[in-house]
Amino acid sequence: MRKNLLRRATAALLGAAAIALMAPAGTASASGYAVLGSGSTLLPGERLVAYRSALTMQEDGNLVLHLCADAGGACGPVIWNSGTWGHPGAYAYMQEDGNLVVYRKGGSRPSDALWSSRTWGHPGAYLFLHADATMLIEAPSGTPPTGWTSDTGKADAGADVPQGERGAVITSARSLDPGHWLDSGTTWLVNQPDGNLVLYRKRDGAAIWSSGTWGRPRSSLSLSQSPLWPALGLHRIDNGSRTWSTPLKGRAGIHGVAQSDGNFVIYTDDGTALWNTGTWGRT
Q: What would the mean pLDDT of 122-131 be, rounded to a whole number?
């Protein structure tokens, strides 16, 4: 087992807890996918569950995609949302024209729409939630695709990492985009759409470390092997400027690992630990 660094880091957790909303109880299924069919609705408090992900129509009016530790159980990290909080009673409707719409309470007119996927013109299309927490709006067979996706998913490393470890490792060959995460047996390291990088404990969805960058523009997490740049940093999607980084500089052969002991660690190829979140033993 890799050696942990013996120094501890102070975690900036404010804001992380706010985004880790627990999904209300609803109809759950342990199957590998879930569908919101054409003409179907999600009312406040209802949810679709596909193995370890859940799409919830929250009471506050926000349509939210969560990661879940267990099929049908409590859910934690939010990896996508419609941004429609503050409208209690709002509901989601998979319209027969192919558009997924969040309407304000009691509304059904275009002026009542709070958010939409803008996929009208695809009659019979439906929302498909995969077990890997990716959402698509699928058009009927034989018709043009809608092109809409939640752009979420687990960020597996490339072929340079052993197959069984790819979901927990970040290398310089692949970044961690907003709405994507690393997955150990006990934690998720999530690059949230709100600009915050958060390490969550699976058993209760609690945030145990964060970069403290909530409320900033969407950013991509990347690992650098250059000594001129920080080893790990968040960079804005729109202009590339850095919003957070480690004090550790890059070097050849480093990689980051989300460990089952609750710690995220940057290692050299020979297994020397260089930096960590200080969260070992917090699972």
A: 95
